[in-house]
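BUG-281 | component: ligand-complex export | severity: low

The export step for spermidine jobs runs without errors, but we want the raw record kept on the ticket for reference. Input record follows.
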Amino acid sequence: MPSWMDEIYEGVMRFGLKATRTLFDQRSDFQQVTLIETEGLGRALLLDGMWMTAEGDEATYHELLTHPAMLTAQAPRRVLIIGGGDGGTAREVLRHPGVERVDMVEVDGLVMEACRAHLPTIGGPAWSDPRLHLVVGDGAAFVAQAEADSYDVILVDGADPVGPAEVLFSERFYRDCARALSPRGALATQGGSPRVQRAEHLNLIGAMRGAFAQVAPYYAPVTLYPGGAWSWIWAAQAGVDRDALDAARLAVIEPDCKQYHGGAHAGLFAVIPNDILKAIR
Ligand code: SPD
């Protein structure tokens, strides 16, 4: 019997999908991990009742988190993913043939287990790719201990800024990322909703500015997430050209992207809501 699964934002707004089947519902040491089948967007993952990803909608989020950083970093071979337990970010990273090693540090092992078993389409071939190295642990502690200049790209694919992902929104964390990143590398993080999580979004930009010379938010609609537009934030040190895409690397990944393409890249960074632009000037 179908029923509605809703996430309620700040008590004033909600997004729901018709759920036809519960595939998995268990409490981990960190959160409630739920996988359901939905009529509108296929299989979906929720953490503590908050929508994280869904088959019918995930490409926009994972492509936009991954490719702007991968294509602007110089020759990315070593990639660190913080979070990313559904495997979608690893899948996009591993489409880049120059990548030699991906370390993915997910705090909640149950999320990875449940997604591999019940949401296998999102990680797809990444789960069996020998270049992927999984670590179950605290991403912030991992990056704090990483050697300087040990990654060419860092992607932060965490949940909302409550619970285990809260630490991924601090200046301290981004300073550690900046140290672990190569000087010609690039980082991208999910940046929350510029409407429903405006204060957290602006604070995150401020925290990242404490660690990187260049910090640039970009926006696109993701059906599953609140407030119409979602955000990602690209960051790098001076000398990395945000608009200079590596054409050979782009040609490999672009044909199979659903959302991202090279023609839209520079425009991504131009379409900033004016109130955000004024707030971050
Ligand atoms: N409000 C949802 C925020 C989710 C951001 N991360 C999603 C993880 C998908 N890999």
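Assignee comment: Attached the raw record above. The longest helix spans residues 58-72.
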